[in-house]
Write a structure and sequence with these properties.
InterPro entries: BetI_C (IPR039538), Homeodomain-like_sf (IPR009057), HTH-type_TetR-like_transc_reg (IPR050109), HTH_TetR (IPR001647), Tet_transcr_reg_TetR-rel_C_sf (IPR036271). The radius of gyration is 20 Å and the shape is elongated. The chain has a domain of 142 residues: Orthogonal Bundle (Tetracycline Repressor, domain 2), CATH 1.10.357.10. Helices cover 69% and strands 0% of the residues. The chain contains nine helices and no strands. The mean pLDDT is 90. With 203 residues, it is mostly helical.
Amino acid sequence: MARPSKAPERRAELVAAARHTVVERGVLNLKLRDVADHAGMSPGSLLYYYPSLSDLLEDVQQEAVERFCVAREAAVAAEADPRARMRAMIGTGLPNGKNDELCVLLYELGTIARREPAYAARHIALYERQVRGYVGILEAGAATGIFDLTDDPVTIARNLVTLEDGYGLHLTQAVPPLDRSVAEAMVLSYARVSTRCSLEDPA
């Protein structure tokens, strides 16, 4: 009887090694050998599982996007009131600082999207998935009369995600110009204005 293949397990280990290497070194000038060294194998052995560094980083990006979105969606699903759901969505959309591994990873891999269509497609899918999350909250709040939207839900949602991205990039720089609490307050401020709602739980 043939032994089960260890390829899936080995691929998962290589994705983890690549993830840590990207966060530590950045994606610019990253070499296949850097990942191989982190994984404790030769570059040739790595190529047995992934034909190129680009192929490996595609799996890294896909895994990072899924983890990020699932965590946000779970936080929102745990809340019933649209105000609490909005706060949960905003609270999970910003990095905790320059050492937030998952957000740093997504920003680093996002730079490849300027040149590679496959990366761009996943980057767009990440953006649109977050927009849909906000749209659902906004529509539910408007339908129940809790929110009085100043614009259509998609426009507000796109602005919220763009604010998160902008502040998030600042928060992950070597010397962040603001801290996370300030960035979160700014995004919440726009959400309050655009929903005409304090976003506080009813007394």
